[in-house]
Amino acid sequence: MLYPQQNDTRNTLDLSGFWDFKLDPEEVGEGEGWHNGLDAPRTIAVPASWNEQFQDTRDYMDVVWYVREFYVPQGWAGQRISLRVGSANYAAKVWINGEFAGEHYGGHLPFALEVTDQVVWGRPNTVAIQVENKLTPTRVPPGNMGKGGMFSMMGSHPDANFDFFPYGGLHRPVVLYAVPQAHVEDVTVVTEIEGANGIVKVHVVQAGGDLPGIVTLTGQGGVVQAGLTFSGGSAQAVLTVSDARLWCPEDPYLYKLEVALTLGTQVIDRYTLDVGIRTIAVQGNRVVLNGKPVFLTGFGKHEDFPVHGRGLNMPLIVKDNALLKWIGANSYRTSHYPYSEEAMRMADREGILIVDETPAVGLSFADGEENIQARLAQCKQQVRELVARDKNHPSVIMWSLANEPLLAPLGAATMGTGRAEPSPAAAPFFGELFDLVRGLDPTRLVTVEAPMARGYVDWLSKVDVMCVHRYTGWYRLGGQLERALEHLESDLDGVYEMYGKPIAITEFGADTIAGMHSDPAEMYSEEYQVEYLRGYLDLAARKEYIAGLHVWNFADFKTGQSLVRVGMLNRKGVFTRDRRPKMAAHLLRERWTK
Ligand code: BDP
After folding, report:
1. Per DSSP, which regions of 278-335 are E strands?
2. Nearest atom (ligand 1) to Cα of 559
3. Of 144, 130, 134, 143, which is closest to residue 61 (Cα–Cα)?
4. HEC profile of 336-386
5. For residue 6, pLDDT beyond 90
6. Fewer CB within 10 Å of terminal CB in the chain, N or C?
7. Higher model confidence: residue 81 or residue 454?
8. Among the ranges given (144-153, 242-251, 270-279), the one the predictor scored with the smallest mean pLDDT
9. Is the CB of 469 within 6 Å of ligand 1?
10. Contact 120, 133 (CB under 8 A)
11. Per-residue model confidence (pLDDT) at position 152
12. Element (H, E) at 470
């Protein structure tokens, strides 16, 4: 799943902008032919969520239609044309000129449909995309889970089984793109280090032809080239870069890789890629980048901003990366779903280490085999699509297969209030996902974020890093920081004893209302957030098995309405939703930039 590219052999046409838009609550659109055009539409911006663009669509979770026209440029004649949707949340169906072109299930990951035979030339084409964002128990992530639902217990509205707002819409650009008949269909790059040399292994898939090719790597140390001989559509090359400049947070150096398919001296297709030469591993209690220990500092984040909702927001990506640098963070997790490809490319350029998470948040194992299997099928599809999309990013160091799966019967498992036996259904479920991801990508680390079960869970020993979430001092022992920290210490020691793996505390935080102060510190005040975070940082500094700290959350973010989310916000941000620092941001900066 290559990112569409514009160069001398390929073209892209970004269909971002104003589209016609219409709600279809009765689901009559397909029968009434709305794919040919909308009667009395309103105007909506793409990419963006629909929820905050109008007053009457905030909680709308059903079917909508997006329609617009486009011309195919004359210069694209003879090429293969596809329509690529960066992210349609949740399910999408696409029509070109009234003809059904294809569909996709699952938000957050791109899909492309070849439409060469459906487009017309010399007059406008119509593209119609039906998007639907229902919250159902068999979706990943799930919603409307009844009594088993974690947030339904708190009466959260909309009834999602997670706290971030379930935004809907065309969240990332819709792009029309053209490639030559014979073209580079896929490229996979794996890097290794041998002494001072970087080894770059390139695997190329060609479609629509059988041309020879050439792969060129340019950067510090000069130009390295190798020929590509295809057999059965695929070819490999191994490039050795002497005295390689390795990619790392302090020096995120990117080599330029070009794959070209040639006919004599003519280049028929070319695709270029940024390549960071780096390795990632776990050694003992440490995460090791290029053979050197790296301590993860950073956050769990969200794609979230007023009005845009979950829509691609390029200035915000730039701003957030600047703030990550300012505060001294070297990493973040794409909680709780894959972020935009643009965000991943920015991380490559800025040297930010990414824990790349699938959309599997709020999984339950208590609602019967049929539902569990339906979700497993989607989790597998999401793992495949995520690895296919992000496998070449040097920034991506770890795959996160899920966030807080509810492994045990709810009451006992939530909020760490008791011990519970993990559900037997979870072991084969995650067994399959681990096998799948390790088969697709043996080079990166893998984790499952903080399963909600106390006690030893055998399949969890398959993770490379124990990513634990702790709200001791907030949801538990709130307001009693001293006791909370004592408790936390013995709790973490116990986890380390059980698993013997490096531990990263990948969620810990306290809701904080910016501008609210108290002395002595009390919950919700800026002082309390500072003391809470300081307590965790100090504890981590004393424990050599702790390999990283991700504060929950980088910024305040939109949630559903519930008793625990004042003003529809989770306020555990170290920055406000509009990116103003709270006092805690200065504490982290002081600690992390030293
Ligand atoms: C954790 C979830 C995260 C929530 C957080 C919280 O992983 O999505 O936002 O709790 O309650 O359990 O703030």
Report:
1. 280-283, 286-289, 292-294, 296-300, 331-333
2. 9
3. 134
4. CCCCCHHHHHHHHHHCCEEEEECCCECCECCCCHHHHHHHHHHHHHHHHHH
5. yes
6. C
7. 81
8. 144-153
9. yes
10. no
11. 63
12. none
**Which domains, and CATH codes, for the chain?**
11-179 (2.60.120.260), 183-275 (2.60.40.10)
Report the predicted TM-score, pTM, of the whole model to 2 decimal places.
0.97
CB atoms within 10 A of CB 98: 12
Integer CA distances (angstroms), 569 to 41, 179, 305, 525, in order: 31, 44, 11, 15
Kindly state the tokens that stand for 460: 């969890």
Cα gap 469→557, rounded to integer Å: 18
Pocket of ligand 1, candidates 162, 163, 363, 550: which has the most ligand atoms within 8 Å of its Cβ, to mutate? 163
Per-residue pLDDT tens over the stretch 119-161: 999 999 999 999 999 999 999 999 998 876 776 666 789 999 9
As a whole number, the mean pLDDT across the chain is 95
**How far, in Å, is the centroid of ligand 1 from the Cα of 244?**
41
What residue owns the CA closest to ligand 1's atom 11? 163
C-alpha of residue 414 to centroid of ligand 1, in Å: 11
Ligand 1 neighbourhood includes 156 CB (under 6 angstroms): no
| Cβ of 278 below 6 Å from ligand 1 | no
Mean pLDDT in residue range 441-452:
94
Ligand 1 centroid – CA 492 distance (Å): 19
Q: Is the CB of 507 under 6 A from ligand 1?
A: yes
Judged by DSSP in three states, 432 sits in helix
Cα separation, 553 vs 53, whole angstroms: 25
Atom of ligand 1 nearest to the CA of 336: 8
Ligand 1 centroid to Cα of residue 163, in Å, is: 7
Give the whole-angstrom CA distance, residue 486 versus residue 495: 15
Averaged pLDDT, 72-96: 97
Whether the CB of 163 sits within 6 Å of ligand 1:
yes
Ligand 1 nearest atom to the CA of residue 449, by list position: 7
Query: Ligand 1 within 6 A of 572 CB?
Result: yes
Token pair in block for residue 128: 């119609």
Give the per-residue pLDDT at 408.
74
Cα(53) to ligand 1 centroid in Å equals 26
Looking at residue 574, its amino acid is V
DSSP state of 331: E
**Which pLDDT score is estimated for 410?**
58
Beta partners for 69? 126
Tell how far the Cα of 426 is from the centroid of ligand 1, in angstroms: 21
Active-site residue set: 404, 507
Q: Is 404 in the pocket of ligand 1 (CB under 6 A)?
A: yes
Res. 451 pLDDT band, cuts 50 70 90: confident
Reported as a pLDDT band with limits 50, 70 and 90, residue 413 is very low
403 touches ligand 1 (CB under 6 Å): yes
